[in-house]
Structure formats: structure tokens, C-alpha cells
């Protein structure tokens, strides 16, 4: 669903690591970048249809419940002009708590107990050369340590990638819509307002999981999988 615009937050102290040149290894997720806006949550975009349970079982190789544990800088790009001197890549290490769905339609690696998520990172202010500002996109929640998410993922170009903006749902406390969304920590009612989930025509997984737990997730995916068979 289309995201509202929320305020940019300053990031915390960096944890630095280096990725090998030439790309990321198997088991690393890459968040699809949206178009950034000055005041935070960017415009949404879709690599694959990602809104409904039918979209998830058609396009995802796996759907997991995973907790973000740690984040680190994993690369940087120098910016030639403007208010920021660098754009920093960010990798989030995630613990997989549950695998709610796995497709048999395409070959893909087995999902283990851990994944690395390369998503929206930071920009460094040119004025002092050290202040970092969060990059936020409309594709999905930022995915930050200490929070749990439902993620619909696809194996593509030797990486695990989310389908699009509808394929990552906040899931703190095993409750859909509770947790981090667009860099902010929200309750389900606030998440529903931000995602505009009140419309009767909305059949998104974001709405289907609102205020619900793993049984609702598995029920929705099982029902969609039966329709596909």
C-alpha cells in the first residue's frame, strides 16, 4: 500500500564491516530501493506483485518470520555534490523464527536459521563528515535490529530479495502491524492508518495480518496455495 511521509531519523553509532568486491553471497537479502524523499518514507515500487496472499505464493520462494539482530555498514558510495558526502550500504543479520511457506515451482537454496538483509542504509552529512541520516524507502519497513518481520522472499541473481513494498510486514510480539514501519515504531492502529488499510477492496497481506499472528499467516498462505494447485 502507498506509504505516508514520515520524519527522517538520525542513525546510531556505526558497526563497520566490509563486503567482498563483486557482490553479496548466498543467504543475503537485498531491499529494493524506492525514490527517497527529504522527509523520510519514499515512494513505493514493485519488482514483483506483492500485495495479496496469491501474489506471495505465486512469486515468492519462501515466506519467513524473522527477527533483525544486528546491523553494520557493508559498503559506501561517494556522492559528488549535495548535502551528503556518502551513501552507506547497511546489512542486517536476521534470525529466522519460522518458515510459513516454501514454493516447489522454482529451485532455490534451503533457508537456514540466519539471513543477511541488505536494505536501505544511511547518508553522511557533508557539513561535518560524520553525522548519519537514515535512508528510508517505500518498498518495505526499514528493517532494524530489535524488531520482527514477515518477509516474502525470492531467490534471484544469487541473492534473496523481497518481492516489493507489500512483502515485508511488521510482526513484533507475533502480531501483524506492530513494530517498525518506515523507520517508526507503530501500534497496529497507527500502522493501519499509515497503510490506509480500511478499504473493503484491500486484499493485501498487510491487512490480512493486522492484529493477527502466525495462524492467520499460515491460513492465508495455505488457502492461496490450494487455489494455485
Automatic annotation (TrEMBL):
Keywords, ordered alphabetically: Membrane, Transmembrane, Transmembrane helix
Disordered: annotated span: 192-229
Basic and acidic residues bias: start-end ranges: 192-206, 220-229
Transmembrane segments: 12-35
Protein name stated in the entry: Uncharacterized protein
Organism: Streptomyces vulcanius
